UniProtKB/TrEMBL annotation:
<feature type="domain" description="ABC transporter">
    <location>
        <begin position="360"/>
        <end position="597"/>
    </location>
</feature>
<protein>
    <submittedName>
        <fullName>ABC transporter ATP-binding protein</fullName>
    </submittedName>
</protein>
<keyword id="KW-1133">Transmembrane helix</keyword>
<dbReference type="Pfam" id="PF00664">
    <property type="entry name" value="ABC_membrane"/>
</dbReference>
<dbReference type="InterPro" id="IPR017871">
    <property type="entry name" value="ABC_transporter-like_CS"/>
</dbReference>
<feature type="transmembrane region" description="Helical">
    <location>
        <begin position="177"/>
        <end position="194"/>
    </location>
</feature>
<keyword id="KW-0067">ATP-binding</keyword>
<feature type="domain" description="ABC transmembrane type-1">
    <location>
        <begin position="40"/>
        <end position="326"/>
    </location>
</feature>
<feature type="transmembrane region" description="Helical">
    <location>
        <begin position="35"/>
        <end position="55"/>
    </location>
</feature>
<keyword id="KW-0547">Nucleotide-binding</keyword>
<keyword id="KW-0812">Transmembrane</keyword>
<feature type="transmembrane region" description="Helical">
    <location>
        <begin position="75"/>
        <end position="100"/>
    </location>
</feature>
<dbReference type="Pfam" id="PF00005">
    <property type="entry name" value="ABC_tran"/>
</dbReference>
<feature type="transmembrane region" description="Helical">
    <location>
        <begin position="267"/>
        <end position="288"/>
    </location>
</feature>
<keyword id="KW-0472">Membrane</keyword>
<feature type="transmembrane region" description="Helical">
    <location>
        <begin position="149"/>
        <end position="171"/>
    </location>
</feature>
<dbReference type="InterPro" id="IPR039421">
    <property type="entry name" value="Type_1_exporter"/>
</dbReference>
Length: 634
């Protein structure tokens, strides 16, 4: 896997490697492929509506040239009814095509949103460590939302207007080819202008969407609970408001530029098209005065009516071209996410384990965050086996690779050398469902959804009964607290669980893992951020969770790991020492030094606690009483 490369969502430089418009248009059209039948029906309705609407000027011609001059009342009534019928049919066809095309467009929007979300779910952890949450949200909400008009109506509008233009031009040629040539003289110029306007708006749209993503990221970060706490405690509320105002000001400028781009040129097209009837009357009058072929009044009125009917779809067709150019920028940003490579994938024929015993093995494991870089590997030559039901503690200084090692078991990252096994099977060969059921992770960073306590626990097991939830909470030492709340298990935990303390959130996370009941448990410094009293309560919950499971503990406080079957000391990605607690203390090496450091910190904490209160001081002192685990020379 290549975490560094995958985490870089920024699109490539806009050079020759950028997808060309024809290829991009073909890809957009492929989005509509599953709905070919419905689109074909829309095409039929569009064609029928165009043919019916073109018939009206011919009926008008017959009224003016035949029915009225000859006083044929019956023919006049029939022709008038025909004009009414064409209007009714055109409206009915329009409503039906709008219903079908909007439904198809919304399905395509749904496919895009779901596709991007599914793709992001498959991205490695490194992608999210380097990508702002607001950027991801903006791509799903703003970019896909911005394409709604294009996806739901532009395709139908394009077909409808194109059909109307073709049918109208054919009808105009049938009436008088000379007037038709005069009417279409400036059409190439109009097409050229609309293409230039489209390219200009596409460039501005790309900038605008990037600015919207930046503003969304600012809102997400600064208006979260953590962001508000940080801003207020640091006295930066005014500064954050000023920064947001500047981001918004830049967006205002881009929105104005986007709206006004090519506006005068497109208005010129509208003025010229609106003036065309006058030109037609003038041309007909000149032809009559110069003894040219006479044009009947009915033909002239019918032709102008057709030309007026041509004006709306022609201008709409040119505007649609501009809109499509603008939308290409949005599609490109979505396709950038859909095209992100996913290296952590399930094999074509994955291994499914009906029952997992829980033996975990690290065989000559090597891992680099940047496989092609020159930096030293984060892990190098790790050889460790944890028997089923056994316990392994991994300790070492910050940056030694402890957490990275734990991430390899559930495949949050993949090894760049060697392999990690579960019951002797390479985890890369397992299907995702087996791995997810087999490995549970409790980390220092506890995440809770803005939902009820029960819903947060049921995330691990959606079909869990109330009794199972309560039993898991009791095992995690959190049931009594939940029961004491006015709404009990229906209590909302709040944004990121801020209605609960750190220790309570950890115990909720442990209850969630107990409910899932995995045979392998990863504890990634699950108590390092807690005070000693809370740590003691959480540790009791962890002990209940660990019973009978294969447990890998990433430890910061060594008092929590002395009972592990095996302790591994990492240093700069290598195993510096391994053995039991007593064996490592007897060697008086790196582990013993870490224990002495931990003991000094605990004694200092006990001394500080004594000044705050005898009871609190006694609790801290009990945690600091490590005489039985510290070498005699401490």
């Amino acid at each position: 896997m290549r975490p560094h490369d995958l985490s870089d969502w920024t699109p490539p430089p806009r050079d020759s490697a950028q997808p060309k418009e024809p290829a991009q248009l073909r890809r957009i059209l492929r989005l509509f492929r599953p709905y070919r039948a419905r689109l074909a029906l829309v095409g039929l309705l569009v064609g029928a509506a165009s043919l019916v609407s073109v018939a009206s000027p011919f009926l008008l011609k017959e009224i003016l040239d035949t029915a009225i001059p000859q006083g044929r009342t019956g023919l006049l009534s029939l022709l008038a009814l025909g004009m009414i019928a064409t209007a009714v049919l055109t409206s009915v066809f329009g409503v039906l095509q709008t219903l079908i095309s909007t439904t198809v467009g919304q399905r395509v929007m749904h496919d895009l949103r779901t596709g991007v979300y599914e793709q992001l779910q498959r991205m490695p952890l490194a992608f999210f460590t380097r990508t702002r949450t607001g950027e991801v949200q903006s791509r799903i909400a703003n970019d896909i939302g911005g394409m709604q008009a294009t996806v739901t109506s532009t395709a139908t509008s394009l077909v409808s207007n194109l059909t109307a233009v073709v049918a109208t031009v054919v009808a105009m040629l049938a009436l008088d080819w000379r007037l038709t040539v005069v009417s279409l003289l400036l059409l190439p110029v109009f097409v050229w202008i609309s293409r230039r306007v489209g390219r200009e708006r596409k460039a501005i749209t790309t900038q605008r969407q990037k600015q919207m993503a930046a503003m969304a990221a600012t809102v997400t970060e600064s208006l979260s609970v953590s962001g508000i706490l940080l801003g207020r405690t640091m006295g930066r509320a005014d500064s954050l408001t000023k920064s947001f105002a500047e981001e918004s000001e830049r967006l205002v400028d881009l929105e104005v530029r986007s709206s006004m781009a090519g506006r005068w040129r497109m208005s010129t097209i509208g003025i010229v098209m609106a003036a065309m009837p006058a030109l037609i009357y003038w041309a007909a009058g000149i032809a009559l005065q110069s003894d040219g072929p006479a044009i009947s009044l009915g033909t002239l009125v019918a032709f102008v009516s057709l030309q007026q009917g041509l004006f709306r779809p022609a201008v709409s067709l040119l505007s649609t071209g501009v809109q499509m150019q603008t939308s290409l920028a949005l599609f490109q940003r979505i396709f950038e996410y859909l095209d992100l490579p996913v290296d952590i994938t399930e094999p074509d024929e994955p291994v499914r384990l009906a029952k997992v015993r829980g033996e975990v093995g690290f065989e000559k494991v090597e891992f680099r965050y940047d496989p092609e870089g020159q930096a030293r590997p984060t892990l190098d030559g790790i050889d460790v086996t944890v028997p089923a039901g056994g316990s392994l503690a991994v300790v070492g200084p910050t940056g030694s690779g402890k957490s990275t090692l734990s991430y390899l078991v559930p495949r949050l990252y993949d090894v760049t050398g060697g392999r990690v096994t579960l019951d002797g099977v390479d985890v890369r060969a397992l299907d995702f469902d087996t791995l997810a059921r087999a490995v549970g992770v409790v980390s220092q960073e506890t995440y809770l959804f803005h939902a009820s306590v029960a819903d947060n626990l049921r995330f691990a097991k959606p079909d869990a009964t109330d009794e199972e939830i309560e039993a898991a909470a009791r095992a995690a030492q959190i049931h009594d607290h939940i029961a004491s709340l006015p709404e009990g298990y229906d209590t909302l935990v709040g944004e990121r669980g801020y209605r609960f303390s750190g220790g309570e959130k950890q115990r909720l996370a442990i209850a969630r893992t107990i409910l899932r009941d995995p045979p392998v448990l990863i504890l990634d410094e699950a108590t390092s951020a807690l005070d000693t009293r809370t740590e003691h309560a959480v540790q009791q919950a962890i002990d209940a969770l660990s019973a009978g499971r294969t447990t890998i503990t990433i430890a910061h406080r060594l008092s929590t790991v002395r009972d592990a079957d095996q302790i591994v000391v990492l240093d700069a990605g290598h195993i510096a020492e391994r053995g039991t607690h007593e064996e490592l203390l007897a060697r008086d090496g790196r582990y013993a030094a870490l224990v002495r450091r931990d003991a000094r910190a605990a004694v200092t904490g006990a001394a500080e606690g004594a000044t705050e209160g005898r009871d609190e001081g006694r609790a801290r002192g009990e945690q600091a009483n490590v005489g039985s685990v510290v070498p005699q020379n401490v």
